[in-house]
Amino acid sequence: MAWLELHITTTSDHADALGEQLTELGAQALTLRDAGNAPVYEPAPGETPTWQSTTLVGLFDDTQDMSAVMKLMSAKLAAGVLQDFRLETLPDQPWERTCLQDFKPLRFGKRLCICPSWETPPEDDCVNVILDPGLAFGTGTSPTTALCLEWLDQNVQNGDTVIDYGCGSGILALAALKLGAKQVFAVDYDPQALLATRDNGERNQLMPPELEVFLPDDFVGREVDIVVANILAKSLIELAPYLASLAKPKGRILLSGILITQAEAVLEVYREWFTMPEPTSKEEWVRLEGIRK
Questions:
Q1: Taking 90 as the threshold, does the pLDDT of residue 137 lie above it?
Q2: For the domain that residue 173 is a member of, what is the CATH number?
Q3: Structural domain tally of the chain?
Q4: Is residue 102 part of a domain?
Q5: pLDDT score recorded for residue 120
Q6: Which of 36, 82, 115, 198 could bond to 53 as cystine, CB 3.0-4.6 Å?
Q7: Of 32, 59, 92, which residue constitutes the final position of a domain?
Q8: Which residue range forms the structural domain that includes residue 70?
Q9: Which DSSP string corresponds to the chain?
Q10: What is the pLDDT of residues 72-103, one digit of tens each?
Q11: In what order do the strands lie in the sheet with 112-115?
């Protein structure tokens, strides 16, 4: 099946209403994108990120009569509700496989490799984690996840116990186990994340008691050798006393999901419990690490 994409440039004030109208006229999916250069890194919980200059993309079946849609767009353009619009035809092709072709094995540090299931794992001395790209969950391509994977490759020791707080896909939890950790507790507020972590664990033959998953309210805090949290800076600051309580004396903490401009604020809080060296950066993001006092 081929598809039609309608691209509309508008403002945040009009994006929601236009999206509702497109849905009523048969749009199968809607996407909001930044039409300028104003990234939204930390929307409030439940908030849909929008930008002052917004591109709204509506996806339509190519068999649909688009005359009503185009008439509406012309009227909105004349009224100044949108700046421009264009209709594109997407060729018929196996989109799933086209997308998957973009994901190749990724290496982090000296040993660790994240490999999608349809690729042959490297046959050298890599420690391979099999992980497919999934909706909203990390696969190692983001700078924050990459920073954490590189640290784990260098620092996990055989027999370590680890907490991965905000586990998402479980990528950091699985990497820690593959690198020699004895047991990892994966914690996340999203039940879908816990399901993804369990599924990815089974794919890598990592299951209880090696890998245990919990909602925060169900997790009984315990001291471990390494505490990992790749979440937003605001949450890291709020959770600092709790995360610090999970680290053994001389235990280590690994924090990411932090913009360079946020690093000092996070460091200031965690220095109460940890000896913290200077941040390590990748693009506009940083990794913080510390040793429990």
A1: no
A2: 3.40.50.150
A3: 2
A4: no
A5: 79
A6: 36
A7: 92
A8: 3-92
A9: --EEEEEEEEEHHHHHHHHHHHHHTT-SEEEEEESSS-----PPTTPPP--SEEEEEEEEETTS--HHHHHHHHHHHHTTSEEEEEEEEEPP--HHHHHHTT---EEETTTEEEE-TTSPPPSSS-EEEE---BTTB--S-SHHHHHHHHHHHHH--TT-EEEEES-TTSHHHHHHHHTT-SEEEEE-S-HHHHHHHHHHHHHTT--TTTEEEE-GGG-----EEEEEEES-HHHHHHHHHHHHHTEEEEEEEEEEEEEGGGHHHHHHHHTTTEE----EEETTEEEEEEEE-
A10: 999 999 999 999 999 988 766 544 444 445 56
A11: 106-108, 112-115, 127-130
The stretch 214-236 carries a mean pLDDT of 95
Beta bridge partners of 230: 256
Amino acid 136: pLDDT? 36
- Domain with residue 21: its CATH number is 3.30.70.120
Distance CA 264, CA 48 (A): 28
Q: What is the pLDDT of residues 52-76, one digit of tens each?
A: 678 888 888 888 899 999 999 999 9
- Contact call for residues 233 and 240 (beta carbons, < 8 A): no
pTM of the predicted structure, to 2 decimals: 0.67
Residue 236 resides in a domain: yes
